[in-house]
Amino acid sequence: MAQDIWDHPQTAYEETYASGIQKKELKNHGFTIKDQVGGLDTAFVAEFGQGRPIIGILGEYDALPGLSQTVSPTKKEAEPNGPGHGCGHNLLGTAGVEAVVALKEKMEEEGLAGTIRYYGCPAEEVLSGKTHMAKSGVFDDLDSALTWHPMTRNASMDVSMQSMVSIKFHFKGKPAHAAASPEAGRSALDSVEMMNMGVNYLREHVPDGTRMHYTITDGGLAPNIVPEKASVWYFLRGSSKEEVEGILHRVQNIAKGAALMNETEVESEIIGFPYETLPNDPLNELMYHNMLESAPLEYTEEEQAFVEELAHSLPTAGKPFEELLPTSISFNPYQPGVSMPGSTDVGDVSWITPTGTITTTCAPVGTALHSWQATAVFGTQVGYKGMHLAASSMALTAYDLLINKDDVLEKAKETFKQLRDGKEYQAGI
Length: 429
Ligand SMILES: [Zn+2]
What we know:
The chain is an alpha/beta fold and 429 residues long. It folds into 2 domains: 2-161 and 276-420, 3-Layer(aba) Sandwich (Aminopeptidase); 163-272, Alpha-Beta Plaits (2-Layer Sandwich), CATH 3.30.70. The chain has 13 helices and 12 strands. Strands 1-2-4-3-5-12-6-11 form an 8-stranded mixed β-sheet, with helices on both faces. Strands 8-9-7-10 form a 4-stranded antiparallel β-sheet, covered by helices on one side. α2 (16-28) runs parallel beside α3, α5 (188-202) packs across α6 and α7 (281-293) packs across α12 (381-402). The longest helix has 22 residues, at 89-110. The radius of gyration is 23 Å and the shape is globular. Zinc ion (ZN) is lined by residues 87, 89, 124, 149.
């Protein structure tokens, strides 16, 4: 399934192939399918069992534009400018399917009570799929959720990822002949440039760890026409949604100021606004222990050769193989209290129900997610082995949650309550 999805990459909200084969497989295994969740064509929930607890496993399957690559240790597109699985979501969702199918067999064997769900979540890469699903309430009755991400090490992700707003600003001015009557024109592109300058001055006056990046998505048509329309797309990230809301307020004022300066108009649209993730210690610890209980990673000579050759294009080139593909498992290798640069819509789910997350070794150290090297290795046994380790850890953990081993559900909920600190979840779009 992971190979099949890798072979048929589709980008955000268009993942008909991946969601289709997953639904079919889960249906064949006796799961009930709820389709079109949150009004999204490629979102679904597959369910088995009855009563509480209700345990969810989150899957993703969207690819990235422009990251097409063959299974080759050197750069070689499969399709010019085509999409590719440079974030390994072909593995991410499939591990979830694998985990719930295994779990269902075990539940039947032991006559276990409780409900398990697989959440087919589209469009993680544009950070909004789970927000739309959350708005429809599908995560509300969960007792806990589990997920993972392909990475370059085996670890629990006991760290918070940043909240982020994805927002587009559209300026509208007045067109004019740029040489014959420039005085009649009001350049929307000038507004965009002045806005960007304002934001670049703001950089010094935002909390540490803030990230602000943009691309100009529309800069006009030709130099001899004063641009009537221009657009700029911003990602603003911070350690919490509240912090990002503060930064967003200031950036919106800068946009208004830029429009005022040269008499244009501005409108904005929020594309996605996920929360920061709330790392749940009791769940992460349990997932870590269950990763230790799972079959360890082992590689063949062929896989070793592939990875060593791929590493020629990585900053880790020449490192010994054991350091390139670590098989060790660590609890929390991240810096406590510091949020990890990068964002995910898993943040929203982690504000609705206790959520545990792990990463496994699916690519050599030095591989950046969203690169051709990542696409290449996520289509090989190296990726699939990491995927099976993740599936095993999630299935074992979901089993422990179903039997509420050592009152883990209560502990997870207590941690969740403390982290949320009395605040209610509100969808950012
Ligand atoms: Zn990803």
